Amino acid sequence: MVSGHPVHASGGKAPLKTKLVMALAGNCNVGKSVVFNQLTGLHQHIGNWPGKTVEKAEGTTNFEGTTVDVVDLPGIYSLSTYSIEERVTLEYIMTDRPDVVVNVVDASLLERNLYFTIQLLEAEAPLVLALNQVDEAQKKGISTDTRKLEQQLSIPVVPMIAVRGIGFHELMTAARDTGLRKSERKVILVKYGPEVETHVEAIVRTIERIQTGLPTRFVAVRLLEGDEYVRQLVARVNEEAINVADEHRRQLEEEHGHSAASVIASERYELVRKIVEACQSVTPRKFGLEDRLDEVTTTGILGYIIMAGVIALMFTAVFIVGDGVASMLGGSFSALQQTVVQALGGGVIAELVWGAVEGLMAGITLALPYIIPFYVIMAVLEDSGYLARMAFMMDGVMHTVGLHGKAFIPLVLGYGCNVPACLGCRIMETDRERTLAVFLTTLIPCAGRTIVILGLVGRYVGIEWALGLYALDLLVILALGRLAYKTLPGEPTGLIMEVPPYRVPHMSTVLKRTWFETSSFITMALPLMVLGSVFLKGLEVAGMLGPISSLLSPVSVGLLGLPSVAGVVLIFGVLRKELTLIMLAALSGTTNLSSVLTASQMVVFSVVAMFYVPCLGTVVALYKELGWKKTLTMIVAEITLAFAVGGLLSRVLPTLMALLT
Amino acid sequence: MTIVPLSNLRPGDKATIDSIEAGMGLTRRLLDLGVTPGEQVEVMRLARFGGPFEIRVRGSELSIGRGIAAKVLVRREE
Q1: Of residues A51 and A141, which shows the higher confidence score?
Q2: pLDDT tens-digit profile of A552-588?
Q3: Do B51 and A405 touch (CB under 8 A)?
């Protein structure tokens, strides 16, 4: 059972702190981000944990004169350090030592949630329990006796309904009190059954003098479980302790016939079950509306039809917003160009300034029509619980490209814009899955590439050829997905995901999140887009386009059979893919592109534009998600792919097209 | 009583988890989500196209891929 006894206090009065650091920890889907948003409002910042692609949201709030820095930790189910998120959380609690950790739990899933709470207690985190969504639990016939739960856990428990702002004052009072009384804090002992306890205590005696920065009992339990991360931590200071722990683990496994990890997990859950039974009462409820909705939207053909409808709606929303904003910007854009050129009287400076403006506009036209709606849609899908259902339905299909169901959303949204789609690949659990999903996402023809495909092939060659290109793209994705799946090191992970109940998304949280995510991306991408654009303009002004064209002609003319102007055009396409079409017209001096390219050249040109280097915005997103090494590898791979497929087509297509007509 | 992989069950079937025959990482994740030996599990639904199993364990609902479901052994009363 869990029991508390005071830890030897440091003696004397601790100086009253007016600044506190509070961390939010808990499972996924418990309303942690709603708590975070309600607390910090507009005072927040979204970044990454140093050196990790795990998101870190920080903010500040003020409570009765005390400034409270709030850190939102990743949503996890355990402190077992098998995922990056779990390691980040453990390292943060151990090294940064927040004054108080608020563990947000879902009142209707107390058993699963307290399993994590128990581990936070073992890690000796200064804990307050936020018992959230008590209203939803009530609807399910679950009521919790808060006082009894407090007694059972020996920590403050605050019932809350975060979406309606209920319980925050009580939460902050408890958090402040716990944070301020850090030195008088009790160590809460989590005790296992006698068989496990004997081994834990034996290991505790062995490692008592070893400094790992983690509580001794916590380390002992982890060693008994065989946690790799903690083993390495201990091995660095004392190799012998590992052998002792391993021997105890072997004994425990012999006694039980199950792995030690499994024995300890079962015991932890047993402990939790007793606590839950002591303080919760459940009246079974009838089959409700939510269950009916769940049944209809996930089972059978109707579920897939509804999903197709939702996706269609998503695209319509993105394109309506995108189109509206783009045409609005387009108008003011050309007026602006005149003003800039006139004001600076033409010349090199005017050209370069114009280049900067173009880069800025490329960034804005990326952010407004695509990134903002993407985040809103993504957040709504996630919060409502529909994302999990889509992943459930598409898992089988996604396995054909070596990914599991969760990758479906970023891939589909890649048709709108690759940039947010790459950022959305964060929902994949491991580095391996994330890399593969990001790679395949960059091969999805986004709106910009659609303009090229439809504007060139669709318009001049025929819509069936344009559709053929989409089919070709899917084939390439399928082939490369399978290839990467086979060659990427590491274990492929299958789908393991909690299916949250359907809920109405909390709009204020969704919108705030969208705002902060978008602005953090823009501050990173905009400068790069402006620089890139100025650089390209500089090349043009310096009269480098001609020489570059002839330099590239072995590829553009020799390999791909395109006119030499295509080389330069494709370079500019890196800024935005649809620029290739615009520049092709501008540099050829005609809008009738059929006089510039033959039908087969159009197909080849579109294929190359579709596959080669992702646009600058996507490159920035790649760099942000995967680091420069993987980004460069992908760029090289995609250029090679574009030239290989393009080169092949340029040799086959003219004959094929002649045969077909 | 027979021991079968969870992937042999059909929607509506209930069984008791016997063991998990998988690597450490996967075993750990399943255990942490409450899929522990001795616990009751119920199959809620099955996705099409070789998709995942939706199961209910310890009051929460989980989606687990078919490959993973094959690695969870369960005891079924017959």
Answers
A1: A141
A2: 888 888 888 888 888 888 887 887 787 787 777 777 7
A3: yes
Q: Does A109 touch chain B (CB under 8 A)?
A: yes
Longest Cα–Cα distance of chain B, Å, equals 32
Q: Which of A112, A265, A396 sits opposite B51 (nearest CB)?
A: A396
Say if CB A68 and CB A61 are below 8 A apart. Answer: yes
* Residue position matching structure tokens 């910042």: A45
pLDDT at A12: 42
Using the structure block, give the residue that is written with the tokens 């087969």: A600
Best residue in A105, A221, A497 for a mutation probing chain B (most B CBs within 10 Å): A497
**Residue A2 reports pLDDT greater than 70:** no
Residues 6+ apart with CB under 8 A from A501: A136, A290, A294, A385
Residue whose pair of structure tokens reads 């939702």 in the numeric block: A310
Please check whether residue A221 touches B, CB under 8 A: no
Question: What pLDDT sits at residue A51?
Answer: 66
Strand, helix or coil for residue B40: strand
Residues of A in contact with B39 (CB under 8 A): 266, 269
Closest CA to A437 of A404, A415, A470: A404
* Lowest-confidence pick of A78-82, A270-274, A285-289, A654-658: A285-289
Q: What is the Cα–Cα distance from A559 to A553, expressed in whole angstroms?
A: 9
Query: What is the pTM (predicted TM-score) of this model?
Result: 0.80
Q: Pick B51's closest partner by Cβ from A82, A228, A392.
A: A392
Which residue in chain B is spatially nearest to A304 when comparing CA positions? B48
Residue count (chain B) = 78
How far apart CA A86 and CA A229 sit, in angstroms, is: 11
**What ipTM is given for this predicted complex?**
0.93
Candidates A586, A658, A603, A656; CA nearest to A460 is A603
Residue pair A564/A553 in contact (Cβ under 8 Å)? The answer is yes
Residue B3 forms contact with A (CB below 8 Å): no
Nearest residue, CB atoms, B63 vs list A269, A304, A392: A392
Chain A interface includes B12 (CB < 8 A): no
Touching B: A residues 5-34, CB under 8 Å: none
What is the rounded average pLDDT for all residues in chain A? Answer: 84
Which has the minimum average pLDDT: A248-262, A506-520, A604-618, A645-659? A506-520
DSSP conformation class of A399: G
Q: Which of A109, A293, A392 to mutate to test the interface with B (most CBs of B within 10 A)?
A: A392
d(CA B62, CA B59): 10
CA nearest to A167, candidates A38, A33, A37: A38
How far apart, in whole angstroms, are the C-alpha atoms of residue A158 and residue A174?
8
pLDDT in tens, A205-218: 888 888 888 889 99
> SS3 sequence, A368-384?
HHHHHHHHHHHHHHHHH
Amino acid at B20: I
Chain B CB within 8 Å of residue A111 CB? yes
Asked if the C-beta of B21 comes within 8 angstroms of chain A's C-beta atoms, the answer is no
Burial class (CB in 10 A: 0-12, 13-18, 19+), A97: middle
Distance, in angstroms, between A251 CA and closest chain B CA? 18
> Does the pLDDT value for residue A11 go beyond 60?
no
pLDDT of residue A322: 64
The verdict on a CB contact (< 8 Å) between B27 and A262 is yes
A109–B37 CB contact, under 8 Å: no
User: Average pLDDT for residues A59-88, to the nearest whole number?
Assistant: 89
User: A299: which DSSP letter?
Assistant: S
Q: Give residue A133's region: left, alpha or beta (phi > 0; psi -120 to 50).
A: left
Q: Give dist(CA A118, CA A2) in Å, integer.
A: 9
Question: What radius of gyration, in Å, describes the C-alpha atoms of chain B?
Answer: 11
Min Cα distance B43 → chain A (Å) is 13
User: What average pLDDT does range A93-107 have in this prediction?
Assistant: 93
